[in-house]
Request: fold
Amino acid sequence: MSVKKPRIGISLGDVAGVGPEVAVKALLDPAVASRCIPILIGELSVIRHYAERLAPQRSLRTVDHPSQADSETEDLQILDLKNIEFSNVRLGEVDVACGRAALDYIRAGVNLCLNNELDALVTGPIHKEAAQLAGINAPGHTEFLAALCGVPEVRMLLVVDHLRAMHISTHLSLRQALDCVTRERILETIHFGVGALRQLRIENGRIGVAGLNPHAGEGGLFGREEIEEVAPAVAAARAEGLVVSGPVPPDTIFHRMNRREFDLVIALYHDQGHIPLKLMGFDSGVNVTIGLPIIRTSVDHGTAFDIAGQLKANPESMVKAIELACVMSNQY
Reply:
């Protein structure tokens, strides 16, 4: 029995960076074509520039609507928004026009997903400064997507193979992030985590909640957050029948997940989750936004302005992001 391929939209990100390059490279991977119908959301002149250098044998095909995309073709299929001309792009430089174009690609992809015309959206990297100049009115990609979808709360999930971390907060100063370490927010994040694992086809997932302080507070010797906030949240989750452990000392919890004791770690601030996962898989990590009414995955790297246009960018994270979107779309 044949399996219907999901239609996956891939936004190019900031075209002054490596987003278009890794997108084209990912679509040249046979595994991607076998799993889905990939549709680039961006600008034809940008894709033509990279396709001529990376895959001159491949034809380009524009579509006006995802339904027009061919499920069997080897052509690179593009939803062309015609909003920037590549000849005017200064590679590796912050530019408001590139920031504006990147936001247009995201809006288009979100709307198509909300209208069930795409099964998932995979986003290329945007440059925060360019996006701010273009009026993003949000700290970053994740918050912008939440606003477009009209949801008040989302969570960031990082995935590197069998390693997964969800953060109770993201783009805040460390001092501000400490104020988020509350019983209520931790428990809410555990609930987001349960939903994320189910989307990843993991039922009854085992969740470990990291401590905040060295040695998870050492019984209050190094801080009381574990006693007053983390442990009560874990106890409440366990009372609901969830498989949750913690607080687990933050210097060992990721090692234990790597040994497959946990399916997901709840990190209590941004870098507590980002540093170990980027160490384990800097080129293969995937960023997932949980809590949206759509499926959104993304590369877990930036625009890499320093190598933009040099054809050096590693597409592994983009390939993994597309593969994960296929899994979450429940059509493969």
Summary: The longest strand covers residues 37-42.
